[in-house]
Design a protein that fits this description.
The structure holds two protein chains of two kinds. By secondary structure, chain A is α+β, with helices and mostly antiparallel strands. Helices cover 46% and strands 11% of the residues of chain A. Chain A folds into two domains: 66 residues, Arc Repressor Mutant, subunit A; 77 residues, Glutaredoxin. In chain A, helix 4 packs antiparallel against helix 5 and helix 5 packs across helix 6. The relative contact order of chain A is 0.11. Chain B contains 17 helices and eleven strands. Classes of the chains: A alpha+beta, B alpha/beta. At the A-B interface, helix 4, helix 6 and helix 7 of A face helix 7, strand 3, strand 5, strand 11 and helix 13 of B.
């Protein structure tokens, strides 16, 4: 019988995680209790792998000395942890009140048409993913979006083109 | 008015220690840690009338005084940098542009409450502010301003920056503690209050970024000076965020008690495109809305409470005459339905139910009875849950429908075409 593909087959392997062990040790040492390291360990694993794999949850649980199910609870609670791969560039598009007032709906529609994706999707080439976000607290620059680490404010269709077309 | 909290916002690279030090950073902390007693700092903060600037407005000195005496456990200072209240963007300025101001405040505050360990909980999406803050903390450690012998005083202070991961509820202080302890951000039942049982079961003081940034200024210039900047019972200045339909949205540092009308028409340059004002939310999405006729009000905790709303996080959102209130309620209920932590039934069910009904109205299938049903749901959420999130979720429903009922009724009976995307709207 041929084994079914598992999450492991897409996963870059436990070697990636063991390479993070040294960093994990430093993170755990900063806290008064090891369990407090759950969030930063998950951030580290996700930043390295691209998303939170089942193995990353186990690795986090091991270092923070909590049950894996606890880590899973955490991963599913917070919007920033992804359980499947996102695009090379992840877009959080703000739909907070101030952005709505300054026309985020038409900007968001433009972005969706441009990338041909909906909320939660990844482009077929894996380059972009889109998440409609709650207020990102850059209200003075509405409408705005976050691409990877950076906030981009006062969006227009032209500006969106420039930002996204400029990314590799 | 002289800029106090915002004095370094437009200085390039003020997040770097060399620039911050040229501008006087850490001099006050050094003086306080080497020549003052913790009780003197507490007394000054009490006398300054500093109130918590994260939204609740609780007197900071009073909060600090709740810590148990002769306590054998460690005391923690936790800084709430989980800015997430829609309409609020002020703490980001301190974190990204002037983190040393806050770190200096942390050093003095930790000393005052006999804490040797501080955590800054910063929202996960604030990546660039986090990077600047962490770089500032690293520089402060390298220089010996933080660590075992902070500023050469013999007093030990460690500071850890902790990133959140995308959950509005973690701005609620007990949810923040659970999140900081590595769990889901579920608010805790109170009492016990965090000052008695907080982080890791130890006495903990949780202060907002801006609040703690005020402390060095109080210690440098005196409590009376700080108190005199504001109004009786509420000292200092405040960073007001203003956004929406104004010509110059931004963050403005103004004295407590400034007129809302002045912020809109003077500081923010008036209504966008010269249109007419329709409504204002004065303190983040959780604050009840004010109509154009109600904006002649002072921006402080008591005045806004008397006006039936709240100062909250001082995130002012301005809506002009083209704004569709049904649409605004649709987005408000979407926000609360998405962000409810799910712990208490009235909130978990109420926010979702309310959003479904508002969605039905917004999509043109509403019934007149829906309005009273929404009000009933909202009233059944208020004061029935562990934290105030459910109250905050109820208030937009109660105030938008309460003050703009005719518009909601017209939307339902005459169809949405007349009101959606009117000419000239964004």
């Amino acid at each position: 019988m041929t084994a079914l593909p598992t999450a492991d087959s897409r996963f870059r392997g436990n070697d990636t995680l063991s390479a993070l062990d040294h960093e994990a040790q430093k993170i755990v040492a900063k806290y008064d209790e090891k369990r407090a390291a759950v969030l930063p360990l998950l951030h580290l694993a996700q930043d390295t792998i691209g998303y939170v794999t089942p193995e990353a949850m186990e690795w986090t649980a091991k270092w923070s000395e909590v049950p894996v199910v606890h880590v899973r609870e955490v991963v599913t609670f917070y919007s920033m942890y992804h359980q499947k791969p996102v695009g090379k560039h992840h877009i959080r598009f703000c739909t907070g009140t101030s952005c709505v007032l300054r026309g985020c709906e038409s900007q968001l529609n433009y972005l969706k048409k441009k990338l041909k994706i909906e909320n939660g999707d990844v482009t077929p080439d894996g380059k972009f993913s889109l998440e409609e976000a709650e207020c990102l607290c850059n209200c003075e620059g509405a409408p705005m979006m976050q691409v990877d680490k950076d906030y981009h404010v006062d969006l227009t269709e032209k500006k969106t083109d420039e930002i996204l077309d400029g990314l590799k | 008015m002289e800029a106090i909290l915002s004095r370094n916002f437009n200085i390039s690279n003020a997040w770097k220690l060399s620039v911050a030090e040229e501008r006087g950073a850490y001099q006050t902390a050094k003086k306080v840690l080497t020549s003052s007693k913790p009780e003197e700092v507490l007394a000054a903060v009490m006398a300054s009338n500093l109130r918590g600037l994260g939204g609740a407005g609780f007197p900071t000195g009073k909060k600090w005084s709740f810590l148990p005496k002769n306590n054998p456990k460690p005391v923690y200072l936790v800084i709430n940098a989980d800015e997430g209240e829609p309409g609020t963007c002020k703490d980001r300025y301190i974190l990204e542009r002037d983190p040393h101001q806050m770190i200096e405040g942390i050093i003095i505050s930790a000393f005052a409450i006999n804490s040797h360990k501080a955590y800054v909980y910063i929202r996960g999406e604030y990546v660039r502010p986090y990077e600047n803050l962490q770089a500032a903390v690293d520089e402060a450690y390298t220089k010996g301003y933080l660590g075992k012998n902070a500023l050469g005083s013999g007093y030990a202070i460690d500071l850890v920056v902790h990133r959140g991961a995308g959950a509005y509820i973690c701005g609620e202080e007990t949810a923040l503690l659970n999140s900081l302890e590595g769990g889901r951000g579920l608010p805790r039942l109170k009492p016990p209050f965090p000052a008695i049982v907080g982080l890791f079961g130890c006495p903990t003081i949780i202060n907002n970024v801006e609040t703690v940034a005020c402390v060095p200024h109080i210690m440098k210039n005196g409590a009376e000076w700080f108190a005199a900047l504001g109004i009786p019972g509420c000292g200092g200045t405040h960073l007001f965020s203003i956004s929406g339909h104004v010509e110059k949205p931004g963050v403005y540092e103004l004295p407590m008690g400034v007129s809302l009308k002045d912020i809109i028409y003077k500081n923010a340059g008036g209504i966008l495109g010269g249109r007419q004002l329709k409504a204002v939310i004065p303190g983040g999405i959780s604050a009840k809305i004010l109509t154009a006729a109600e904006v002649d009000v002072k921006m402080d905790y008591d005045s806004l409470k008397n006006a039936g709303t709240m100062l909250g996080s001082a995130g002012i959102m301005v809506m002009d005459e083209t704004t569709c209130m049904v649409k605004m309620l649709y987005y408000a209920t979407k926000f609360f339905a998405h962000e409810s932590c799910g712990q208490c039934s009235p909130c978990r069910e109420g926010t979702g139910w309310a959003h479904k009904i508002v969605t039905r109205i917004y999509s043109g299938h509403g019934k007149i009875e829906d309005l009273d049903e929404l009000l009933r749901i909202a009233r059944n959420m208020e004061r029935r849950t562990i934290c105030v999130f459910a109250d905050a979720a109820a208030w937009p429903i109660l105030s938008y429908i309460g003050k703009f009922r005719t518009e909601f009724e017209q939307f339902i009976t005459q169809g949405k075409a007349a009101l959606l995307e009117p000419a000239g709207a964004h």
